[in-house]
Amino acid sequence: MEAVRVASVDPDLDQHNRAFGTSTPEELIKWASARFGDKLIASTSFGATSAVMLHLVHEVAPRTTIICVDTGYLFPETYQFADDLIKRLELDVRFYAAQMSPARQEALYGKLWEQGEEGVKRYLQINKVEPMQRALGELGAQGWMAGLRSEQTEHRAGLRRIDRQDDRVKIHPILHWSTEQMTSYMERHDLPYHPMFEQGYRSIGDHHSTIPTTADMDPRDGRILGQTRECGLHLPLTEEQNQSLKSSGL
């Protein structure tokens, strides 16, 4: 598909949300692909049900570049799962990591994720926020698709299917899908769950701060890094973060 030139992000998000309020994920991805062309990216964590969004992208907009932020602390099974899905769906995945290695970080700062909310905030800034912002900048992304769902966190419950994060249009094709709809799609297309899903890991992040959950718990309760249950990738940048990223020497 020939790239579509986009001078700036579309200011009339309300109109687009009305137009695509009841559309299928496939229709929304098709619109995003036509709207942004090679300036459209998708992000993935290769988490428990990440195969759903990746399969949708594969089916509708297979040339879309996909970003995965690699903290260096992912489970071995996550790396293996990613490799299997990339091959199966023929995905164009770009891995981005912090400019400072995990070993160097620990030598200089210790285990930041064990140092309270300020330590967690710094950990996320170094290992998730900065690499993602660098990826978006290098790829010139103007449209960003993500597999967020409204039932996952309070913040995500307030999102729109077409929204804005900082200076980019954010597209959430499966925002209103339930767990049952996710399960149905995976069964229909014979898609794999993350290999640790059967062990109770329903929300999977870094190995040092992810625990299994039981059926009566919220899946995000397994993510024990910080209090918000948000990793920072899908939150607007503060002015302080903007300045930090511009002057970062990491």
Question: Describe it for me?
Answer:
A six-stranded mixed sheet has the order 3-2-1-4-6-5. Helices cover 38% and strands 10% of the residues. It is an alpha/beta fold and 250 residues long. The termini are far apart. The longest helix has 23 residues. The relative contact order is 0.17. It has one domain: Rossmann fold.
Terminal CA distance reads 37 Å
What is the typical, i.e. mean, pLDDT?
A: 86
* Spatial sequence of strands, sheet with the most strands: 3-2-1-4-6-5
- Strand content is 5-15%
CATH class division: Alpha Beta
How is the biggest beta sheet arranged?
6 strands, mixed
Q: Helical region count?
A: 9
Low-pLDDT ranges? 1-8, 241-250
CATH topology: Rossmann fold
Please name the defining characteristics of this protein.
250 residues; alpha/beta; Rossmann fold; 6-stranded mixed beta sheet; globular; disordered C terminus
List the topology elements.
Layout: H1 13-19, H2 25-36, E1 40-43, H3 51-60, E2 65-69, H4 76-89, E3 92-96, H5 102-109, H6 116-138, E4 143-145, H7 154-157, E5 162-165, E6 168-171, H8 179-188, H9 239-246
Parallel strand pairs: 1-2, 1-4, 2-3, 4-6
Antiparallel strand pairs: 5-6
Helix pairs in contact: 2-3
Summarize the structure.
By secondary structure, this protein is α/β, with parallel strands linked by helices. 38% of the residues lie in helices and 10% in strands.
